[in-house]
């Protein structure tokens, strides 16, 4: 790509390839004249695969070397962190949703229990009932 923009014949000489790349990095406007879509079509017709995206990525790297185009990483919110750690979503675990839990400790006021995903929880004694219709 760099040698085509500079209209230089490279062949297999790596030194000339490197010189072309450095020259393009110094004068990136030379890349504006290259039709990357046509070049990608030529590669496809030669059986070398679909490279259009890669060609545009190379052009971007040559014109803006070492630039960071990704959005900065954001720390997860409290809800997102909970979902990642508990392997639950707001659809599967939220107030009012019935869940299955196994009790593992009880005292006069609280029953400690564990959900199927390993998350520990508790049920206050005033919220317990023998009535199967109560929630």
What can you see in these coordinates?
This protein has helices at 2-6, 14-26, 36-45, 52-63, 78-86; strands spanning 101-106, 110-115, 120-124. The chain has 135 residues and is an alpha+beta fold. Strands 1-2-3 form a three-stranded antiparallel β-sheet, with no helix packed on it. The mean pLDDT is 84.
Structural descriptors:
135 residues; 3-stranded antiparallel β-sheet; alpha+beta; 5 helices
Quick synopsis:
Helices cover 36% and strands 13% of the residues. The chain is α+β, with helices and mostly antiparallel strands and 135 residues long.
The gyration radius over C-alpha positions equals 31 Å
N- to C-terminal separation? Answer: 69 Å
Average pLDDT metric: 84
> What pattern of helices and strands is seen along the backbone?
HHHHHEEE
Global structural class:
alpha+beta
Percent range for β-strand residues: 5-15%
Helix content: 25-40%
Strand segment count: 3
Largest sheet: 3 strands, antiparallel
**Number of alpha- plus pi-helical segments:** 5
Shape: rod-shaped
What is the element layout, followed by pairings?
Layout: H1 2-6, H2 14-26, H3 36-45, H4 52-63, H5 78-86, E1 101-106, E2 110-115, E3 120-124
Antiparallel strand pairs: 1-2, 2-3
């Amino acid at each position: 790509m760099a040698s085509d923009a500079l209209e230089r014949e490279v062949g297999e000489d790596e030194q000339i390839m490197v010189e072309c790349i450095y020259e393009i990095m110094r004068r990136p406007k030379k890349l504006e004249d290259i039709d990357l879509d046509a070049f990608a079509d030529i590669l496809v017709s030669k059986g070398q695969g679909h490279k259009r995206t890669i060609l545009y990525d190379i052009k971007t790297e040559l014109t803006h070397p070492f630039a960071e185009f990704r959005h900065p990483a954001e720390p997860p919110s409290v809800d997102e962190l909970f979902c990642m750690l508990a392997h639950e979503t707001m659809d599967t675990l939220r107030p009012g949703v019935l869940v299955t839990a196994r009790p593992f400790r009880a005292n006069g006021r609280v029953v400690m229990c564990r959900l199927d995903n390993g998350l520990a929880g508790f049920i206050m004694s005033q919220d317990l009932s023998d009535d199967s219709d109560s929630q």
